[in-house]
Design a protein that fits this description.
200 residues; transmembrane; eight-stranded mixed beta sheet; DUF748; AsmA domain-containing protein; membrane; transmembrane helix; globular; alpha+beta
């Protein structure tokens, strides 16, 4: 009997050790996967600095995401996000809906006129597929804090430098989650920011 208990204990200990090792390796595995997906996007190259996994709340966070156009030799990345938090929207779980929410902290989009060739941009399907790979759940809530948008045209005279700072965006019910009466609720979007000249 004691021998059987000892064997069971060893098996249980082995399982625990394997799970701990897997948990420690998981961020690196996910990081390599995300970097691969970004670099598979036609015309772009990208990377992330770090990945944090939060299993208990069904979430993971991406730190230091940078996406650049391959044809762009400038120091400006097309997209840069300080932190991206992707998680299950738990309040919708109570309603029987499995959807996700995404929070973008300090995202910056830089568009250079000389590289803004729409004919060479990835198709909508490419962007959608990449987004689905990064966030398998349907996104129901999107939040942006302290975002920035910049448009540069250095070939014009004088050079054009348009930007919007301190952007805040909240988009709710993007998945058209139904209420108890099975009526589809409208999506709501709130956007604010500070433009050139301090306009809002």
């Amino acid at each position: 009997m004691f021998k059987a208990l000892k064997t069971s204990y060893k098996i249980l200990l082995g399982i625990v050790i394997v799970l701990i090792i897997f948990r420690l390796m998981l961020p690196s595995i996910v990081k390599n996967y995300v970097n691969k997906e970004l670099n598979d996007l036609p015309g772009y190259t990208g990377h992330v600095e770090d990945i944090d996994i939060h299993l208990l709340r069904g979430a993971y966070a991406i730190d230091g995401l940078v996406l650049k156009k391959r044809a762009d030799t400038s120091s400006y990345p097309f997209l840069q996000i300080n932190r991206t938090d992707l998680s299950i929207e738990w309040k919708q779980i109570i309603k029987g809906k499995l959807v996700g929410e995404v929070i973008l902290d300090k995202p910056s989009i830089h568009i250079l006129a000389e590289t803004a060739d729409l004919s060479k941009e990835p198709s909508k399907e490419h962007w959608t597929e990449t987004l689905k790979d990064l966030m398998p759940l349907t996104i129901n809530r999107l939040e942006v804090t302290n975002g920035k948008f910049t448009y540069l045209d250095r070939s014009s005279s004088p050079p054009i430098d348009l930007h919007i700072d301190s952007m805040r965006l909240t988009a709710l019910n993007l998945a058209n989650v139904e209420d108890s009466s099975s009526t589809k609720l409208p999506s709501t979007v709130s956007l604010s920011g500070t433009s050139v000249g301090q306009g809002h």
